[in-house]
Amino acid sequence: MLRSRLLFLALLVLFVSLSACSALGGLDGLTGDVTAESEETQSVIVPGVPSLLVSHFAGDVTVRDGEADTITANLTRQSRLSDAAEAEAQLELITMSFTQSGTDVTLTIEGRDGVDEGLDAATANLELLVPPGTVLDINLGAGNLTVERPSADVTVNLGAGNATVTLPAEASFNLSVAGGVGNVNSDFEGVPDGGIATDIDTTIGSNPTQTLTFNVGAGTSTSIRPSKKSRTQRRKAR
To answer: Which of 50-59, 152-161, 221-230 shows the lowest per-residue confidence on average (mean pLDDT)?
Structure first.
């Protein structure tokens, strides 16, 4: 019964949720109004399908397909310092830069002196538009990560926060989760269901075309669920 239901899912969502046990802590507990905000957009031209390395100190990150041959990064800096002048000054300490060698691209977002130590006051939310087929290697200190329908390998190193990856139901992939003890909930045969696991290394489907690798902090909760689009498609199929 379970296997037959899975055949009708239009999207698979892999959700990795980490508790604030990590030294960095998550971002969900941030309090206070945003007192200062600034936006910046940068793009690079890539002659082919890129491999993208992202290093980000803290903030929510969303990655989705954009135009071929172009990587676009939209960054929104936010400060919660009560003093307006100090809040504006803190935003200027958060920098974004690209480096590139052919199809190998690195995006670095960092907070210079005083920002990394004040994650309760400053974050930088990132929207990334990447060419279809981009290989992703994402290093995020703390934050919520969403990767929408990647078609190549994805590696995530996450200190604390949540990581969500959506994939078509027919996708076949290798799944690896390591680094922290956590709860695992899955509808997929071969993945530990509803228990505690320190490491997961399994294959979904019979002909994997990509690998999803998660290296995470302690307190991870992993679940797989259909998206709203999946449920809509299943209703139409009936």
So the answer is: 221-230
